[in-house]
Each structure stands twice: as structure tokens, then as C-alpha cells.
Amino acid sequence: MAKIYLSSTYKDLAEARAAVYRVLRKMGHDVVAMEDYVSSDQRPLDQCLADVAASDLYIGLFAWSYGYIPPQQERSITELEFRQAERCRKPCLLFLLHEDAPWSRKLMDRDLERIESLRTELCRDRVVSFFRTTDELAAAVSVAVARQQSEGTQGTSSARGEADALVELVGRMVGECIRLVEQRQHSDQRLYEDFVGPALDDFE
After folding, report:
1. In DSSP terms, which residues pair with 91 in a beta bridge?
2. Nearest-angstrom CA–CA distance, 13 and 85
3. Has residue 122 been placed in a domain?
4. 3-class SS at 153?
5. CA–CA distance from 145 to each of 59, 148, 201 (Å)?
């Protein structure tokens, strides 16, 4: 399996990182993440860049925080990790928090200029995926990584077949999750219409 570097800011995306880390580990991948150094945005830059260079695949998560800028640097560690992946020509899978997703103002930069500029560049120059929830992100990452592995498989036909089967399986799982969520939303709406709404009307 692949050695995958997981990049993002930390405080705002800790829950998302944990979900992605878990799903990648379940898929059997070796995941390199900042938690291996320290649970903080102020992680050792040289080690981060070396780990990006040594990885097979880069995954970048971006919300509304630009991240920590080390001394004598003009860019955040998160952006520098992405630039390193570009420089080393690593396959990059990019996931951006959707603009419509609910997000605490406390997790957003006061000045959004730097992160908005980076997000705009990624959307313009790269293929990106968007997510609204942690579960949606984890599902999207699993599908994207499985597809990347399938497309990049250079081994036997059986290995390619296993990768294709994994993509198909994950796709079915994601579809089932979406179906269950929609079913739950429909059930909640019916419950309100049949019971809650009439009960409230009785008090009017």
C-alpha cells in the first residue's frame, strides 16, 4: 500500500484529520501526519518537507485557516507542504471545506485574504473535491485514494483487479451512506408533519 502524507492546519481540522487518518489506516496505508511530531500547527518544517518528499501521495485538507508561518518564512507550513508536493511531483488529492458548510467563526482567520487566495489558486489550477461534514470527507478521501491506487497500479492484472474492486466497494458504501442519510431526513420530516406539527397547532 501507499505512504500517504496528510497535510492541513491542525486546530480547525483536528476532527477531520482524525477521520481521514482512521479511514486510510483501515485501508492499509502508512499515514504520515503532524500528530507524529506534535499536536500543534507549529511543527518542525524541515521534517515535514522531508516527509512529503518521501511519501507516495499527498492529501491536503483546507478550510478557512491559513496556518502558522514559521520565522523567516513568507508562507505557512501547510502551504509549504503543498508546494513541496508540487516540487516533488507527488500525486495530490485536495479537499476543501465547502463555502456553504456551517463553520465556527472561531475556526476562521480574522483576515481571510491568504487562505482565500490559496483556495482560489487550488480551485483554478487543480482538481479539487469539496466536503461539508467529516463523514463526507472521510468517504470522499477513501474513494479518491482507491481510485488513485487503481490508476497508478503498475503490477499484475490481479493487482489492478483488486484495486478496481476496492474502488467499486467504496463507491457502493458511500452511496449507501448517502441513501441512509436521505432516508433519515425524510423520516424526520414525516415525523414532524404527522405528529409534531399537529401537536404544536393544538397549543395555538
Report:
1. none
2. 20
3. yes
4. coil
5. 9, 5, 51
Rounded Cα gap, residues 199 and 204, in angstroms: 9
pLDDT in tens, 39-72: 555 578 999 999 999 999 999 999 999 999 999 9
48 located within any domain: yes
Is there a domain that residue 9 lies in?
A: yes
Measure the CA–CA gap between 32 and 57, rounded to whole angstroms: 10
CB neighbourhood size of 114 (10 A): 16
Query: How many domains does one find in the chain?
Result: 1
Residue 10's nearest CA partner among 114, 81, 87 is: 81
- The answer as to whether 179 is a domain residue is no
Helix segments in the chain, DSSP class H:
14-26, 45-54, 77-87, 113-125, 134-152, 157-191, 197-203
Q: Are 9 and 41 in contact (CB under 8 A)?
A: yes
Dist. CA 129–CA 160, nearest whole Å: 24
| pTM flag (> 0.85) | no
Question: Domain containing 40 — which CATH number?
Answer: 3.40.50.10140
